[in-house]
Amino acid sequence: MAIKPRKVAIVGTGLVGSSCAFSLVNQGVCEEVLMIDLNEEKALGEAMDLTHAVEYLPKRTKIYQGGYDQCGDADVVIITAGAPPKIGQSRIDTLDISAKICNSIVEPIMKSGFDGFFIIVSNPVDIITYHVWKISGLPRNKVMGTGTSVDSARLKTMISEYLDVDPRSVQGYAMGEHGDAQMIPWSHVYVGGKPFLKIMEENPDTYGKLNLDEIEYRVSQEGWAVFNRKGGSTYYGISSAAVGIIKSILFDEHSIIPVSAILDGEYGEYNVASGVPAIINAEGVKDILEINMTEQEKSKFKKANESLRGYIARLGH
Fold this sequence. Notes:
It is built from nine helices and twelve strands. It is an alpha/beta fold. The chain folds into two domains: 7-145, Rossmann fold (3-Layer(aba) Sandwich); 149-314, L-2-Hydroxyisocaproate Dehydrogenase, Chain A, domain 2 (Alpha-Beta Complex). The strands form three sheets. Strands 3-2-1-4-5-6 form a six-stranded parallel sheet, with helices on both faces. The chain has a three-stranded antiparallel sheet with strand order 7-8-9. The model has no long low-confidence stretch (mean pLDDT 95).
């Protein structure tokens, strides 16, 4: 009996795309990685370099450069190609160029017979996710963006540093836009099962002095803090988040990850892709978790989605 190898295609082999590939290979997530880039020599070089690492990894992975016509049997396509913002620009400033780039990518991929899952990393990720969903014609469970997955990791890291605990012992989400309009439902942030707000209340002289608005702002700006220091891109965190999503799909893990998902009535929202906690399994977005937010939190989340819908409309959707 023939066993179909798990195959992931990566479109865009810059720092983010190549980091996604390294994370896939290093963790042994799939049997094949297809590297695609307009700069074929760059994609080939990345594939060669990664292939030379296989000797020292726990699992053999076939890594090779190719084209969109080879995506027909891919399980997942990651889109990292786009127009990176320049210093002083926002993610939204890259929207029009990134949308055009995605048009040139998605059409030939769909012509190849692709019927797998799109994972969108390209910014502005929420708007581009909705755009790819529309032009691909795939069902909404098969198209998702990395959304607020890395922002949520940043939130957990910050709280863990304040409380001196493992960030994996912190549960909480950044939601809404992967950008300035994101929000944190503090009523659903827990440390070891205990509400973070309760911890602040019980420790007024230490944690009680923390400014939640300031933390929320820092989380939304942390990507820029990395971007400015590194001189142009963040890639380790976001590539790890993307591969975490892919693992949950390929291994049917049912992990709850805050991805940019197409909303169709959840939280009372329509016609938008937004960062929300979702169950990710072999069906893609299996279900979207609707957490019970306070009225203030609901208002912030709604405001973020109204902003995203405005930009989505700019693309004609």
